[in-house]
Every structure is written in C-alpha cells, then in structure tokens.
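Deliverable D4.2, example record:
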Amino acid sequence: MKTSDYIILLHKRLRGDIEPNEEQALDDWLDNQPDRNLADEMEQAWVWTARYKSDYEPDTKQGLADFKAKLHQTANTGEPQLKRRYLRPSWWAVAASLLLITAGVWWWANQAYSSSDEIYATEAGETRTVELLDGSTVKLNASSQLTFTDLGNERRATFSGEAFFSIVSDPSRPFVIAANGTQTRVLGTAFNLRAYPDEPTVEVEVKEGKVELAGPASAGPIQLSAKERGICSPRQDQLYKVPAEDLNALAWHTEPFGQALLEMERYYRIDLELANERLADCAYNGAFNSDNVEELLTNLTLVFGLDVEKTGERMYRLEGGRCR
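Output generated by the structure prediction step:
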C-alpha cells in the first residue's frame, strides 16, 4: 500500500472503526517507520483537531504536503539521530509542527474520507455482502473495494473489483458509481459491475431496472435495461452494449433464497409468501431469464421442489420444498 493508504488506516483507528486485518497492517507499517513517535503525534493532532471551531479552514494542501514531508524527514535528513534527539525546539516551532500535522489529519478526515463514508473491502478468495445506510445491498466479489457516501441529494460511490448491486429506488437521490474511468448512474435496480484495475474493460450487466453507463466523453453514455450488458474500454475510447439473455456475469453471485424472493417480487411486481421459512437461508444463484411469472414459478418448483398456490391477484404461496 501507499503511504496515503496507511494514513487513512490510522484515521480509521482513531475513529474506532478499523478492521482487525487493517490494524495489523498498520502496526507493521508503523514498526518500520524511522520516526517511532508518529502515531502518538497524530493521535494528539486528532485531539487538537476536535477543538477547532467548525468554521476553521486551514491551508489543507500545504498542510498535507508538509505532513507527508514529515513522514520522510528522518530518512531524507543528514542530521544524526542522537543530535536531533537532544535539541529543544522553541515553543513556536512545536506549535507550527503540530498545526501542520493537524492540517494534514484534517484534510484526510474531511476531504479524502469524511466521517460519513462507508468503506468495505474483500481479500483474494473472499466474498462479502454489506448493507449500506440507504438500505441498498452490495455483494462484493474477491479483491474488491467500495467507498460509499450519502450526499443528501445524491448517493455516490467509488468502486474497484466486482460486485452485485441491489439499489433502493429513490428518484430524488440517484446512485452514482465511479469505477476505472467510467460512471454508472442508477435510480433503483439490480446489476453486476466488473471493474478490476488490471482488466482493459469495465462491464455492467443488468438484472432488473435500468442503468446509465458513461465512459469516454466521445462514446457515451448508453442506457442499459434488464438482460443487457454494457462494455466500456476507456483506453480505446469504446462504449457499447450487447444482449445478455443468460446473465452469465451473475454466475459467481449466490444469495439466500429469501433475499432472492424479495428481488423477484420487485422485478415481477408480485407477492410471494414462503411457508417453509427454513428455505430462506438456502443458497440461490438463479437469474431472471424470462418476464413470464408462470415460467419463474415452474423453475422454482423444479429447483426447490415447491408447491405453488395462487392466493390472489399476483399473489402466490410457496409451500414445502427443500434446499438443493
């Protein structure tokens, strides 16, 4: 990781929301720093930052530059360590140094990652399902990272990797995802987004609803509906869409059957009652390949051995069944 990544981890530790694996990585990095007092100084700066009035705005760019320079001053200076250790700096030098550190921490806390940001990540071979504060759910595939911020009139995220998004509909607050030179804009839908940094293309495959995918200015944006895949190659200035009847990009995505039923209800505008609650935790990775409700119900009876009873207009009760 870069130095800035470790500064972010230290900021997360001070906020109290650092993950165990992140804390271990941070401790290892701090142990290898020539300035062993770095963490203590940043913690003190954090305390001082909290005392500033809300309308205080330091020179964040200069403060950050000086803060980064402090991280490397031990390695770059020609002064012997012992000589510097016994120097007694004047009070104004101490105050100036602390202010610069404070400005750097303030910048990271309020510009790079605000306290309202939600940050999620997975390692190689790991998948993880998270629920965002707006109620949307995201299932992250391996080696992925998501940062989400609710700006009030807009929900914004930056993303790297692959994930299945199920976005809560809110026309007044669109959901915008920036990933590898592209922008995916949605109101309420479910789709798969693949945007690994080492791959030449970004792909969006829509399961339900509509998505707008924008890439190079000369090539987009394009509108994607259910069972369509958008492909963007930022380096080649290309953006186009193709049919995706089989929704192959969702093959990796497995979710509890109970969650899948909720998505089916939204997609088909029906009401599904699951009598056997034990089936709610069964794994399900099917796709909605047809707009025909009867075909959907037939597939469910074949997969889980369900008995389907129609109880009203677009209302169905699912009885019996078993996990596969």
